[in-house]
Specification:
Chain lengths: 309, 307
């Protein structure tokens, strides 16, 4: 940090911004001096990378330690207990850990799929049609983004309790289907990707509105919808508050809630710590794998498009 | 054969049909709960006699009583102050780092940029609960590598899960999880700046630092506003990190943050009326803060356009 400030502020002192009094800059600068400047950003970014990878590296190593090794050996030295830890995790409450993982996958895949579908039709309608109440509807939907989840989750729980639907898969699943942020992204993407002329041409050919949407608009919106799906998938997988409030039967827990209960019990029985660590390690794998696979498809320009408008 | 009139009717009705699922879901899972929370917040339970038997407990109008109680509640106030302190660390540090990393990624001579970018963005893929669990262990003296090193060096070992350091410990989890995402948002809008702008500045003899300060940062101001806005909302709603760390320390109470207090009152203490009033208050503060912020940001950009 300080080298950055020193190195860059020294020449800055001599030149006044906006005037052409300085020496003409060297083009195609390949001198050793100029190449070395890359050191500051490179080192800064690598420091950031180490900071971000550190806990992940730690959990990978810690999951290989037996309970005894966890408290006695140097934390970045691999242990010998990974197979035993896996076996213990498998044995814990008849493998309830895998039920949690399965539940998370179910909530996230189904929830994100449905949520993307709802976002797609709503975003398309808001982008393509001019109709009464369009802006009002859109603003009301957007206000949903600002609502703190707990403000919604507590009365959602109480209302679902009135119809005996709490502590069910549906209670975790349904409240997450409508995502105001998803609708917002889908609207931006639809207005960028679907030209009105194409929709008009579809009408000229006598296609119905639904047909135009499914056959013409949807394929055009697909790259953007992948992003919406991924956002929703991560949001549902990571959600803690809603299942925490809705569920009491731990057979229906997603992995986030399962790990938290394990950790809570672990505070009294430290032997469970190795289970929590191994469990946390395994819970990170699917999302990191997904993340590494999709990050090349992830259309991040969508995000900046959202910023500009 | 469809007549032109039928078609135009279809076109008029279509958006309402397309928006139907969203409208139903909105009514059921957003509007109704909000309305119910408002209704609850204005009521209380009136207990007749010993409160036994049917009809002994009934809901009566309470007016603003729950709200005045919430204002007088020192636990809620302390929770709000704690979150304020927490946010005062998280927001500037996280966005400062995100901007710094984005600017560094955007320099010409940087090496290993794809690797660093991916590594810094990676925590976004780690669920907040798992992140808090991992850091929780890294804060525990018996298993943490930091304490191991401090011990070997004979240095004092601070308790990261108590007092002032607890704020740093909690903030660090949020910074770790959020920096990469914000970095990507800022970096993407940096990439959208046309190269000619820099060329002109370079011809004028501007240094990289001047280009960053006078051109890049002003041009990504809209995405900074957006990231700031989302960070404030996320900060006000902090819930899972302190809840996860709670089993590891005695210093995180069940009312550490306002949302935890709402949860405690609703499900621990069973006073859903008080909890509803507190929830409504938190929502109001969030709305006022975010709209106030958006207005301030808007008027600033307008002033700058006018200049």
């Amino acid at each position: 940090m300080s080298t950055l400030a020193l190195r860059k502020s020294a020449p800055a002192a001599g030149t006044t911004p906006g005037t052409a009094q300085g020496p003409p800059p060297a083009f195609g600068g390949g001198t050793p001096m100029r190449r070395r400047i890359g050191l500051v950003p490179t080192v800064t970014l690598l420091a950031g990378a180490i900071y971000c990878l550190l806990p992940v590296a730690w959990v990978v190593i810690a999951s290989t330690k037996s309970g005894k090794e966890l408290f006695s050996t140097f934390t970045f030295w691999p242990g010998t207990g990974f197979a035993d830890n896996l076996k213990d995790l498998n044995a814990y409450r008849d493998g309830i850990y895998w039920t949690w993982m399965g539940n998370s996958a179910l909530y996230a895949v189904l929830g994100a799929l449905l949520s993307t579908a709802v976002s797609a039709v709503s975003g398309y309608a808001l982008a393509i049609y001019r109709f009464k109440g369009r802006e009002a509807l859109f603003s009301i939907l957007l206000a949903g983004v600002l609502m703190p989840p707990v403000i919604l989750a507590v009365p959602q729980y109480l209302l679902l309790a009135k119809v005996n639907m709490t502590d069910s898969y549906v209670s975790v699943f349904l409240p997450q289907v409508l995502s105001p942020y998803g609708v917002y992204l889908a609207r931006i993407y639809a207005s960028a990707a679907v030209p009105p002329d194409v929709v008009e041409a579809g009408r000229m050919d006598g296609a119905g509105e639904w047909r135009i949407f499914t056959r013409i608009a949807l394929p055009m919106m697909l790259p953007g919808l992948v992003t919406v799906f991924l956002f929703q998938f991560v949001a549902v997988w990571n959600n803690f508050l809603l299942p925490y409030i809705m569920l009491s039967d731990d057979e229906k827990f997603p992995i986030t809630l399962g790990l938290q209960t394990l950790l809570e019990q672990g505070a009294n029985t430290p032997a469970l710590y190795t289970l929590v660590i191994t469990g946390a390690f395994l819970a990170v794998i699917p999302l990191i794998a997904l993340f590494l696979v999709i990050q090349r498809f992830w259309s991040l320009d969508l995000l900046s498009g959202a910023v500009k408008s | 054969m469809t007549s032109a009139r039928q078609r135009s009717y279809g076109v008029k009705a279509a958006p309402y049909g397309f928006l139907f699922p969203a409208a139903v879901l909105f009514a059921l899972f957003f509007a109704l709960p909000i309305g119910y929370a408002l209704w609850l917040s204005l009521h209380k339970v009136h207990v007749l006699g010993l409160g036994l038997g049917a009809g002994a407990r009934k809901e009566v109008w309470a007016g603003l009583e729950n709200y005045t109680d919430a204002f007088k509640d020192s636990e809620l106030l302390h929770g709000a102050l704690r979150v304020l302190g927490y946010g005062a660390i998280v927001v500037p540090v996280m966005l400062g780092l995100a901007l710094l990393f984005a600017l560094m990624l955007d320099t010409e001579k940087v090496r290993l940029a794809p690797f660093s970018r991916l590594a810094i963005f990676l925590p976004y893929a780690v669920p907040g609960v798992v992140a808090a669990t991992l850091w929780g262990f890294l804060y525990l003296p018996s298993v943490s590598p930091f304490y191991f090193v401090l011990d070997k060096l004979g240095l004092p070992q601070p308790n990261l899960l108590d007092g002032g350091p607890l704020y740093l410990a909690l903030s660090n989890i949020a910074v770790w999880g959020g920096t990469g995402f914000n970095m990507i948002v800022i970096y993407t809008s940096l990439q959208a700046i046309p190269v000619e702008v820099y060329e002109a500045a370079k011809l004028d003899g501007a240094t990289p630092l001047q280009i960053a300060w006078k051109i890049k940062i002003p041009m990504v101001a809209p995405s900074l506003v957006l990231t700031f806005f989302f960070s404030i909302i996320a900060t006000l709603q902090v819930f899972s990190e302190p809840t996860i760390l709670k089993p590891l320390t005695n210093s995180v109470s069940t009312t550490w943050s306002p949302l935890m207090k709402v949860y405690r009152d609703a499900f621990g203490a069973g006073d859903i009326y008080a909890a509803a009033a507190e929830a409504v208050l938190i929502a109001l503060v969030t709305l006022v803060l975010s709209f106030g912020f958006l207005r301030a940001a808007n008027s600033r950009t307008k002033q700058e356009e006018a200049r």
